[in-house]
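Record type: monomer structure entry
Structure origin: computed from sequence
Chain ID: A
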Amino acid sequence: MPKVKLLALPASHACAVAVAMLDAKRVPYRRVDLFPGLSRAWLRLTGFDGATVPALRIDGERIQGSCAIARALDDRWPNPPLFPADPSQRARTEEIENWGDGPLQMTARRIMLLALCHSSEGRTAALEGARLQFHFPTRLAAPLGAPIVRLDAALNGATAAAARADLHALPHMLDQADRWIAQGDLARTPPTAADYQVAASVRMLLTVDDLAPMLAQRPVAELARTVIPTLPGHVPAGVLPAR
């Protein structure tokens, strides 16, 4: 059995994609959560080419990014497949996967980081169940959360102005995801890499109370709860700027 280690961040939607795919394929693995804001340097020090998570080691081979991880998992553990066998359907899945890994993921990340900058309760909740490197206790990590989240927000351009633009764009992005579900391109059985990508970002946004009215009754919200049943975090209302 290959030795698999996942390097992640607490409550990260990008890392939730990798976790859900590993679990779906029933691959045993060990997870280590890095410190947000400091993870980039650690990944470079440990031999990864890039500076982002999720990062996976399979018997020493380094694989970085949820899209690359999806393909590596399908190569080694084909069932259940993450991509349709039909070439045209696979191309559609990859198109939606890239959208989920790109515009949707970044929009969700900036919104979440700004919310966490203004919510100590949210920062504490995001650490629930974290497996921090060096076995660092989460109760000691919580007081360090504010400066680390502010650093991560700065690195990702999560300003109030950017969040307003993201909050304006988000309903249109959710509409697009709902259309893909109606067309049968999302919410497939078994879930595809595109399902995991889209679901993880929406599942993270479901932890932000300010977004509840926007997400209520949406098919993509139901997809998110189905594909990613649990995700740490809860940000009470009153932290996001008005659109």
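Annotation 1: Residues 87-227 form a domain with the Glutathione S-transferase Yfyf (Class Pi); Chain A, domain 2 fold (CATH 1.20.1050).
Annotation 2: The mean pLDDT is 92.
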